[in-house]
Write a structure and sequence with these properties.
The complex is a heterodimer.
Chain A lengths: L2 H11 L1 H15 L8 H20 L10 H23 L1 H4 L1 H6 L5 H28 L11 H25 L2 H15 L12 H10 L1 H13 L7 H32 L1
Helix pairs in contact in A: 2-7, 3-4, 3-7, 4-7, 4-8, 4-9, 4-11, 7-8, 8-11, 8-12, 11-12
Chain B lengths: L5 E13 L8 H9 L7 E13 L3 E5 L6 H8 L7 E6 L3 E4 L12 H11 L4 H15 L14 H12 L6 E5 L7 H16 L3 E5 L3 H7 L2 E6 L2 E7 H23 L1
Parallel strand pairs in B: 3-7, 3-8, 5-6, 6-7
Antiparallel strand pairs in B: 1-2, 1-4, 8-9
Helix pairs in contact in B: 3-4, 3-5, 4-5
Classes of the chains: A mainly alpha, B alpha/beta.
Chain lengths: 264, 258
């Protein structure tokens, strides 16, 4: 049996573990809360309302944006998925250290499970987007059906970044402390609550070229708000970034995973 | 190939361990450790050059004082740790009972945890569904099936863990001092099940400080001390030698006291 056949075989043996772990995360998140899964929709809605109020009254939000609530919630949902999934993935190996010391399990399953359960949460939170779109009478075009294409890119990207962070975090716990600052900077460098035109020329060039989240937010908005298929640069660029990030993450993880046990 | 007859072949294995000593308390030491690359990793050899060849159907007991590398060796055999030097070859499926109920989540119910634990051991959901009733029967948890595990007593948890782990007929069963918990009725039940498995051709690796139990269950024994193999062979000669040493140490202590 070739090594790849072996790997696929092991993955299928443990695919039910992936399912169980995702199920656990989703189930336990809202267990014993009265509103339960409704929170997945209610939370983004509340935050969207607050941010809309803040940016409409206190700051200049740029009048070029037609439907500000939808603009805001599309950007925020995408970005929130990235931060929550990578944060959870980063801690996935250390958090399951006790188990990894006692039982042989392919380690990547835990990281994959965290990103996947964030994806489930992300899909729930799309309910909030639908509600906002209905309330603001946003126009809907068939391009909205293309959004899964963005989600696949984003999922691949987050898995890759998650693998990278998870393995780095095992050796240097400092990573989880610095990452919070990194995501904050990242959020302000992504056009979530301001239009990209508002940035100064040189920063705009940097964001458009090198901020992966710009590619995904822009694609998602093109399909949902602007009713058009994203341009080839951000569409194919998004795929390229996702695949490269995934490859980097997997390679680093695979190279270092045998040493994890010595550091957890 | 003559080697094929061994189901477990541990060949001159050395296992490295991270002591991760937290003894750095000033900047000078910090820099020194950093330069020596010892800040996050201090090497410690838990098992040194140990070989063990087990044939199908044999039952081996691993004995030795605390910290002699018994559990580490078992972990390497079950694939949790990679050996630093040497090779380990396994020909068959392993059921590791290094910890009962690995993967139990305190907030999930017993029903959910049975599937979770099964998945951790690499069983499919369908397989677990088929054996679900057997597991619940053996664990004998009755009405508590839908309560969260955090409300369980430690004995109940151990029963549930044991019954999930031993539901399959593995080629190799690895037991690490887990049967110390549970009441005597359950211990008897466990022992009976293990004996059943042994007579069914399962190979056993067993770690215990209870020499009676080792003599009872095993036919061979390996004595480890500070990571090195002291003696291996028939269970009675190794256990006798080990007990003699224990006796000597006790006698020496008594002499000192006087």
């Amino acid at each position: 049996m070739s090594i790849w056949q072996e790997r696929v075989h092991v993955f299928f043996q443990y695919k039910d573990l992936l399912k169980q772990l995702v199920k656990r995360d989703v189930k336990l998140k809202y267990r014993r809360s009265v509103l339960g899964y409704v929170w997945s929709i209610l939370n983004p809605l509340l935050i969207m309302i607050i941010m809309t109020l803040v940016f409409s009254n206190m700051f200049d939000r740029g009048k070029s944006i037609v439907n500000y609530p939808v603009y805001l919630i599309t950007g925020r949902t995408i970005f929130e998925f990235m931060t929550s999934s990578t944060n959870a993935a980063m801690r996935s190996i250390i958090g399951n250290g006790a188990l990894l010391k006692k039982c042989y399990v392919p380690k990547y399953i835990f990281t994959l499970a965290k990103v996947t359960s964030s994806l489930v949460d992300f899909v729930f939170s799309l309910g909030a987007l639908v509600i906002v779109m209905i309330c603001t009478r946003a126009s809907v075009t068939p391009y909205i059906l293309c959004t899964p294409l963005v989600m696949i890119q984003l999922y691949l990207f987050c898995c890759g970044l998650g693998f990278l962070l998870a393995s780095m975090n095992v050796f240097f716990r400092d990573v989880q402390h610095i990452y919070k600052a990194v995501t904050t900077a990242w959020m302000y460098l992504t056009p979530i609550f301001y239009p990209i035109q508002q940035l100064p020329e040189n920063i705009r060039f940097f964001v458009k070229g090198f901020n992966p989240m710009y590619y995904y937010v822009a694609q998602f908005r093109d399909m949902v708000c602007n009713g058009q298929f994203p341009g080839p640069r951000i569409f194919w660029g998004g795929w390229l970034i996702a695949v490269v990030m995934f490859a980097i993450g997997i390679t680093v993880f695979k190279k270092s995973q045998d040493k994890f046990i010595l550091y957890i | 190939m003559k080697d094929k007859e061994y189901i477990i072949d541990v060949d001159h294995v050395t296992i490295r361990f991270n002591k991760s000593r937290q003894g750095v308390d000033n900047l000078k030491e910090y820099v020194i450790h950093m330069l020596k690359r010892e800040l996050l990793f201090q090497e410690f050899l838990a098992v040194k050059d140990v070989s063990l060849k087990v044939k199908r159907g044999e039952a081996w007991g691993l004995i030795g004082t605390n910290g002699s590398g018994k559990s580490t060796l078992l972990k390497a055999i079950s694939g949790i740790m990679k050996p630093y030097k040497g090779t380990i070859t396994i020909r068959g499926g392993i059921a590791p009972l290094i910890e009962l109920g690995a993967g139990f989540d305190a907030n999930l119910t017993a029903r959910e945890n049975i599937f979770m634990n099964g998945a951790v051991l690499g069983h499919s959901e369908k397989f677990m569904q088929e054996h679900f009733d057997d597991i619940v029967d053996f664990a004998d948890i009755g009405d508590f099936l839908d309560s969260p595990i955090k409300n369980y007593s430690s004995g109940m948890k151990a029963r549930l863990g044991f019954s999930v782990a031993t539901m399959v007929k593995p080629d190799i069963l690895i037991v690490d001092e887990v049967l110390a918990v549970g009441d005597f009725l359950f211990r008897k039940k466990c022992q009976k099940r293990m004996q059943e498995m042994l007579s069914g051709g399962t190979t056993l690796l067993f770690v215990s400080h209870n020499l009676e139990q080792v003599r009872d269950l095993c036919d061979h024994a390996l004595w480890l001390d500070k990571g090195e193999a002291v003696m291996s062979g028939g269970v009675h000669e190794v256990c006798d030698a080990y007990q003699e040493l224990e006796h000597d140490i006790n006698a020496a202590k008594k002499k000192k006291k006087r």
